[in-house]
Design goal:
- With 702 residues, the chain is an alpha/beta fold.
- Among the domains are: 196 residues, P-loop containing nucleotide triphosphate hydrolases (Rossmann fold, 3-Layer(aba) Sandwich); 152 residues, Rossmann fold (3-Layer(aba) Sandwich); 97 residues, Aspartate Aminotransferase, domain 1.
- The strands form five sheets. The chain has a seven-stranded parallel sheet with strand order 10-11-9-12-13-8-14, sandwiched between helices.
- Strand 19, helix 13 and strand 20 form a beta-alpha-beta unit.
- It holds the Pfam family DEAD.
- It comes from Desulfofervidus auxilii.
Length: 702
């Protein structure tokens, strides 16, 4: 709309007076995602990492009877065919190995020294990086910066013009950024969130705040297409406000670039959007106040070094579609400013994903259905070489369809025109390579067809699927393959993972280890692939988190893991759960239980799925219950010998020696040794009952 002051008239367009239609609804609770360490897909032949013994090969479960007691053991094979039989209550000591790429490490020697040296090497490297992080953070805190003014009525108008309800995560991230901007030190905040979860809107709020304080904003993106996309998105969002926006990329002629640079120098441009072109020496700002970087990990070393210098003088926001583990996020608080956006926008539906053989009849049906509902289609082909042949086939199937082609080898002007035509809905189907993988936001495109999906990596497929499903329409993704027999086993695994994990925000779990690995590397700003490959992803994270805690001066808590050796049969028999993978999954889940409520839930689930618990399974649950009690009391070992139950206390036990002396006075048949062990005579009473009574008495002493 516009205002005519002389006529005292305000003309409103339809979009100016439309009321938000978003209902104020409570967002559904996020489904808990399985941890990385889940053993749900563990198969014999997979690699495991044992905390003490290193990398070995999982051979399966084996039932062993010794001294009249039957139990189940996890068998791990090491170098020279040496085998480790791990009791199922010690599964907390093993993690599933995940490195980088398909190259597998060699097995460690059981009892050898190599594993200890490897861990030390990785720890040293991590400590060095963590120190750099802490140092950079401290330098930034000491640097003088610009303190932006608090949000005013104009900022509130901009907030109200957002046509949707902010998600709780978006709202929190905006508040964190405004708080950072109001501080007299340079901001360096990383915003992590899944594709399409509203990171750009958060960045635009910061940009508007900077402009209100007469500062300029630079938006740095990795590709020319993405620069154009952001330019259009920003133009549309800022349309009702007096903000001058320009785009500097190779799509602009030299004359246009020169004009933009002159305006930028004079301060006539508020927001400049571009690729690494805006980092070049001839780009001069009148008063730069904020830099927004999209997908920093995709820039080269020189650009990253330049950005590092920038971060000590101006406010910087980095946007990343790479999810990071929550544990890493929590441990990095106080070293790197991070905001996580994990909640999907209200009304967003998961993309329905299908795997099918290439079939022209299916193609015609899928494309026709999308066009009938007024939508558009992405058709992704792995190679430039086959695009023209595929275009002829598609035109034969649907002659009335408007088709465009886009790939990285096209002349820049032609590529720009094609992308803009697709954005303006002058094209029904965009036949392209994976050039569209990053950041493109076409709300009207709600079907994506990926031909030869077996030729793409898992992270690529995940990001490609993220190009659709941005609007409230149900979106569809079709993964086309030549047939299962013609594709590799690895490709089958990748495709299966994508089919299984379609839930929103599944980027965090998706067995997308490559994404998560990249996420850890992004935050550190250094390629960590070699160290991750050496010890596995989980072990790497554990070492990293510990190093950061130490540098922050926080106490590093070593969890006491009690060793329990009592003559009781406790395992899951094959007659109860026949599938070995399901048994090992339950064993792993039991090893991760840390409170009695969680244990009760797991017991209820097992009964619900498999029926009444046999006695040996009940014993297993009682054993885990005793472990939970022992951790609370810092009991490091329980065993039985010579008719005695022996309870060994850790030096960190919360029970004072004075209380133990008083306890012994009321139990004259008990004794306490110099090894910090409480000796309890075992009579005819069942061992579990005796333990329960003893532990309850000990808990009363805390």
């Amino acid at each position: 709309g516009f205002i005519l002051p002389e006529a005292r008239l305000v003309i409103l367009g339809e979009r100016d007076w439309q009321i938000r239609t978003e209902p104020l609804v409570e967002l559904p609770k996020k489904k808990e995602l399985l941890p990385v360490s889940s053993f749900e897909d563990l198969k014999p032949g997979n690699l495991l990492v044992h905390v003490q013994h290193g990398i070995g090969c999982y051979q399966g479960l084996k039932t062993v009877t010794s001294g009249g007691i039957t139990g189940e053991f996890l068998v791990i094979e090491y170098q020279d065919k040496d085998k480790l039989y791990l009791p199922i209550d010690r599964l907390h000591l093993v993690q599933k190995y995940k490195g980088i790429g398909d190259k597998l490490p060699s097995l460690d020697k059981l009892g050898g020294k190599t594993w200890g040296k490897t861990k030390q090497r990785v720890k040293k490297a991590i400590q060095k990086i963590a120190k750099e992080l802490v140092s950079l953070y401290a330098k930034r805190l000491a640097q003088p910066g610009y303190a932006f003014s608090p949000p005013d009525s104009m900022f509130n108008q901009f907030t109200d013009s957002f046509p949707y309800m902010e998600t709780p995560d978006q709202q929190r991230s905006i508040e964190e950024i405004l708080a950072d901007m109001s501080c007299p030190r340079p901001m360096d905040r990383l915003i992590c969130g899944d594709v399409g979860f509203g990171k750009t809107e958060v960045a635009m709020r910061a940009a508007f705040k900077a402009i209100l304080d007469a500062k300029q904003v630079a938006v740095l993106v990795p590709t020319t297409i993405l620069a154009e996309q952001h330019y259009l998105t920003f133009k549309q969002r800022f349309a009702q406000f007096p903000v001058n926006i320009a785009c500097l990329s190779r799509f602009r002629s030299l004359k246009e670039q020169k004009q933009i640079l002159e305006k930028l120098k004079k301060g006539e441009i508020d927001i400049i959007i571009g690729t690494h072109r805006i980092l070049q020496k001839d780009v001069v700002f009148k008063d730069l106040g904020l830099v927004i970087v999209d997908e920093e990990h995709r820039f080269g070393v020189k650009q990253k070094e330049y950005l590092k210098k920038l971060k000590t003088s101006v406010d910087v926001i980095t946007l990343s579609a790479t999810p990071i583990p929550r544990t890493l996020y929590l441990s990095l608080l106080g070293i790197r400013d991070l905001s996580l956006i994990e909640t999907p926008p209200s009304g967003r539906r998961p993309v329905k994903t299908y795997l099918a053989r290439f079939n022209p009849i299916l193609l015609k049906d899928v494309i026709s259905r999308e066009m009938l509902r007024g939508g558009q289609v992405f058709f992704v082909h792995p190679r430039v070489r086959g695009l023209s042949g595929m275009a002829r086939l598609l035109k034969r199937l649907l002659p009335q369809m408007q088709l465009g082609i886009a790939h990285g080898q096209m002349p820049e002007k032609q590529l720009e025109e094609t992308m803009l035509a697709f954005l303006r809905h002058e094209i029904d189907l965009l036949l392209c390579t994976s050039i569209i993988e990053s950041g493109l936001d076409i709300p009207n495109a709600n079907t994506i067809i990926i031909n030869r999906a077996d030729m793409f990596g898992l992270a690529q497929l995940y990001h490609l699927r993220g190009r659709v499903g941005r609007a409230k329409e149900q979106a569809y993704a079709y993964l086309l393959v030549p047939g299962e027999k013609l594709i590799t086993q690895e490709a089958q695994k990748r495709l299966r993972a994508l089919l299984e994990h379609t839930e929103l925000s599944s980027g965090y779990k998706l067995a997308l280890y490559d994404l998560k690995l990249r996420g850890a590397g992004n935050i550190l700003g250094i390629n960590q692939s070699g160290h991750i490959a050496a010890v596995g992803y989980e072990m790497y994270l554990e070492i990293l988190q510990r190093a950061i805690q130490e540098l922050k001066g926080e106490p590093v808590y070593e969890e006491i893991e009690p060793e329990i050796k009592i003559p009781i049969m406790a395992y899951i028999p094959q007659t109860y759960i026949s599938d070995q993978t399901q048994r090992v999954t339950f064993y792993k889940r039991l090893s991760q239980v840390r409170d009695l409520n969680e244990l009760q839930d797991l017991e209820t689930e097992m009964k619900d799925r498999y029926g009444k618990l046999p006695q040996v399974v009940e014993n297993l649950f009682q054993l885990i219950q005793i472990k939970i009690w022992c951790r609370r009391l810092a009991i490091k070992r329980l065993d039985t010998k010579d008719g005695l139950l022996r309870v060994y206390f850790h030096s960190k036990t919360p029970i004072s020696s004075e209380k133990i002396v008083n306890f012994l006075k009321t139990h004259p048949s008990y004794s306490f040794t110099a090894q910090n062990a409480l000796l309890i005579p075992l009579k005819k009473e069942h061992i579990f009952k005796k333990l329960e009574k003893t532990i309850q008495s000990l808990e009363e002493m805390i």
